[in-house]
Structures are given as C-alpha cells and as structure tokens.
Protein: Twinfilin
Organism: Anopheles epiroticus
Amino acid sequence: MSHQTGIKAGSALRDKEINIILTMTILMSFFSVFKPSAANAELLKFFGKCKDGKTRVLKVSIENEELRLVSHSDVKRDWEKDYDSLVRPLIEESTPCYILYRLDYKIPTGYAWLLMSWVPESATVRQKMLYASTKATLKLEFGSGHIKEELNATSKEETTLQGYHKHKVDFSTPAPLTSREEELAELRKTESKTDFGIDTKQQTLGGINCPIADAVAQALHDMRHGGYNYLQFRIDLEEEKIHLVKADNIELTALPAQIPTDHARYHLYIFKHHHEGNYLESVVFVYSMPGYSCSIRERMMYSSCKGPFSATIEKHGIQVAKKLEIDNGAELTEEFLHEELHPRKLNLRPQFSKPKGPPSRGAKRLTKPQAVE
C-alpha cells in the first residue's frame, strides 16, 4: 500500500470516528433535555369519567409537552361495528396520537381497553421519541390495569379492524423453536395424551403405550413357542403404532448386521449360551438408536415407547432377561451379551483390621525434675 493510499484510509477512518462522536453527542444532548409529557387536568378528569361504560373511544395527543384530550365518542353498537367508523376519522396522515378504545369484554377492574399508538413513518424523529417515552406515563395515569391489549400502528391499514385482527394473529403465532425447545415441546405433546381405548396409545408412568399390530402379537406368540429366535419392530410415526419388520432364526454372528444405521428399532433375540455349567436361553431386548441421524420426533417416540412395549412383551409370556440400548450393531458380540447378562463378581478383600493397642498401664506419673547441683 502506497503512502498516499494510507493517508486516504486514515482520513476516512478519522471522518467515520468524528461522525460517530457527533451522533452520540446529539443523542446525549437530546435525551438530557427531553422529558416525557404528563396529562393535563382536563384529561385526568376525563380518565376518571370515561370508565363508566358509556365512552367507546378517545383520542389523546401531545401538545406543548402535555397530554391533551382531542376528542371522544360514545358507544353506539358493539365494538367491532363501531371500530372503523369511530377510529378512522381520528387518524391524521402525519400526526401521531394515542387512541384508547373500549372493548366489550370485562375484566376485574371493569371493561377492557385497547391502547393504539399511531406514529406514522412520516413523523419526525422528535415526535417518535416523544410518543415512545410518554406511552408509559399515559398508561400509568389512565390505569394500566384497564389496558389489556396494545397495538403500535405505523400505517393506516394497521389502524383498521382488519389490521387489529391481523395483529392478534401475528402476536399469537409462536416464535421459531430451537432444537432443544422442539424436543421439549414434543415431550409435552406426548405427556398430554389422555384418550383411552384398546387400539389407542395411552400415557403411562414410563412413557407412551403405543398399540401393536396383529403381526406383532402373532410373532411374539410364535417366539414364545420356539418358532423364532429373532424379532425386529418399528414404530409408524404417522400412525403411532408398532409393526413387525422381521421374524427369523439367525446365528449370533449375523445379529449385528440386522441393526439399521439410519432408523431406530426394537429387537428381541434369544441368546443361547452356557454359564457356570448351565445351558441358558436368555431373551434380550435391544433398543437401537443410530445417534442423531434420526429426526427428533423419531428419537422421542422410540424413547417414550420403549418401557411400555417391553412390558407388553412380557404380558405375552416372554420373560426379558436383559434390556440394552445401543447405537451400533457391532456392539452385539457374544462377549458383550455374556458380560451384560452375567457381570463378573468382584472379589472384595475384607478390610484390614487395625490391631488394638497395648492394654492401659494406668495414669502416667508426674515426676518433679531434680535440680542439678
């Protein structure tokens, strides 16, 4: 970079810093002299009168640093029919104002009121700041407990009844959720299910009890009677029902290949093995979830249905010896299953006992030291 280019860059940087300092100075001096306006005596008197239920709307503006009553109208019909006919004449193109509109529903303090702040885009910066800072004063002097709804309007379309309803819809629309909030919302949704029936999922203490397909019940019956040693199940997320995926007789070495890498599944496998000289056939329930490659809904459903479904399996006469959760089929080896079913017992040595000290020989005698001659 040349010397001349460096001078231009430094000059531009100084100009930018000077503009920032000037802007901050103007704002600080503006706020130092600016004070929110207060209501005059006439307006305060009308505030006490208008809550008798006969007044429908009043217009308040700021004149000479003071809140003043501009106009008001009485109730003619219901609030929706009065809205456009009474509010529209109060709106001026470039002049901000406050509109207090009485609704027809009641609250503990009386009728509920809507506070509309009309500050058009064409208003000056001073007007915008003045009306924004005085709004809290207006609510306090009118009685904030009476104002149940608020609307900030910058265009005439927003001051109409249609604009009010659109504001209500937009205000009630939930904000976008994070992944953590989606999981919590899904969990609350599953907890709120209260319909009961033979073929409906039911909320239990341990999760959701999804209904099972007829093929699932038949496969469990066949496994109990020696027909199969391996069953695989899936949850239909739309139907929210458990279906059979596979029923087969397989070797232990083929078990890892049965675990999908893109979807969660439930598995039942009869592990035939020997332990301490005894031949055993232990039924293992495996819940496989391949990490975060599954959707949030799928993870929540499989996690919530796991406990109740294992209880359903036992109701069909199959005693589950061990329940496992894995994310990779490679974990299902003979050593792993054997260790899970028969954990090694630790040979704990008895703690070393500290020997007792010698028996007491009585109190120690105190001897007076002899003086050295």
Q: What stands out?
A: Confidence is low (pLDDT under 50) at residues 5-10, 30-34, 192-198, 200-205. The radius of gyration is 39 Å.
